[in-house]
Write a structure and sequence with these properties.
The chain has two domains: 2-163, HUPs (Rossmann fold); 214-284, Uridine Diphospho-n-acetylenolpyruvylglucosamine Reductase, domain 3, CATH 3.30.465. It has twelve helices and six strands. Strands 1-2-3 form a three-stranded parallel beta sheet, covered by helices on one side. The protein has a three-stranded antiparallel beta sheet with strand order 4-5-6, covered by helices on one side. By secondary structure, the protein is mainly alpha-helical. The relative contact order is 0.10. Helix 3 (54-68) links the parallel strand 2 and strand 3 (71-76).
């Protein structure tokens, strides 16, 4: 069974792999498959401290790593309960993991992500879904990772937050996708994943063109086609802020208004703003508040 699933996986060609392992079925399957594709594997468990039994989950992953002959590392981050919990936990988790860590995202995660971005009115960037780099299981279904765990007699942890209706992703998974399957008369997750792949291919071409733009040059951004200007500004945002998620459409509109000239400064979100001075654009962080004037 492992060999059959490995044919669908896209593990990096490396003698050493690092895997994020939460203890759920997807990440347990990731670890099991990883040890068959690399000489040295390290399992990293991130404890958010949000559940009383999180220490037991770390111990479970440690024992699983030992069983497969993988190294183990435990990391603890602090995330307080409250608004945007899912996003804040995700950011804290990725902040604690190495850049080349492999994660257990599956094709089902890809489908859910595409729908989430569509519900938020995202454009091509959102439709492209999850980047395939370091996501070796993106061509596997969630049912396959669960079946592998059963085959290997692994009893993964079930995260109770995965059924919490406060999180939109859970409602997409449990309500929207089943309804779409019913209406389409087939499983739509593979179709959504295919849509993401096609969008990603288009985005790569546009991205190469957008990379030629200087996002700090107001006149250049103002003169560029909107699609390219948007990509240039979003990529600039990611680099400058370290935030994986780009500004929404309304924020991009405000950024373009500053580049085009009607206003010298605008809020983007999360405490960040954009300002124009002498036809140069700057991103100002939460602790920065100089006055910007048009020139």
């Amino acid at each position: 069974m492992i060999d059959e699933l490995l044919e669908k996986c896209r593990f990096p060609k490396s003698a050493s792999l690092t895997c994020a392992v939460s203890g759920g079925a997807d990440s347990c399957a990731l670890l099991a498959l990883a040890v068959h594709s690399a000489n040295h594997v390290t399992a990293i468990h991130v404890d958010h401290g949000l559940r009383p039994n999180s220490v037991n989950e770390a111990e479970f992953v440690a024992q699983l790593a030992k069983r497969f002959g993988a190294a183990f590392k435990a990391v603890t981050v602090e995330v307080e309960d409250g608004p945007n919990l899912e996003a804040r936990a995700r950011e804290a988790r990725y902040g604690a993991l190495p850049a080349d860590v492999c994660t257990g995202h599956t094709l089902d995660d890809q489908a859910e992500t595409v729908l989430l971005f569509l519900l938020r009115g995202a454009g091509l960037t959102g439709t492209s879904g999850i980047n395939e780099q370091f996501r070796p299981l993106l061509h596997l279904r969630r049912a396959e990772t669960e079946a592998l765990c059963e085959h290997l007699q692994i009893s993964p942890f079930i995260d109770p937050s995965n059924t919490d209706k406060r999180f939109l992703r859970n409602r997409v998974r449990s309500e929207l996708l089943p309804l779409m399957d019913e209406l389409a008369g087939r499983q739509v997750a593979p179709l959504l994943a295919r849509t993401a792949a096609l969008a990603r291919a288009d985005l790569e071409v546009l991205g190469e063109l957008a990379a030629e733009l200087d996002p700090t040059d107001a006149q250049e951004i103002a003169a560029a086609p909107r699609a390219l200007a948007t990509l240039a500004l979003r990529n600039w945002w990611r680099v400058e802020t370290g935030n994986h998620y780009p500004p929404n459409l309304a924020a991009i509109d405000r950024m373009l208004e500053v580049a085009n000239g009607p206003r010298p400064r605008a809020d983007i979100g999360e405490g960040w703003s954009i300002a124009r001075r002498h036809q140069r654009l700057r991103l100002l962080g939460p602790a920065t508040s100089p006055q910007a004037t048009e020139a």
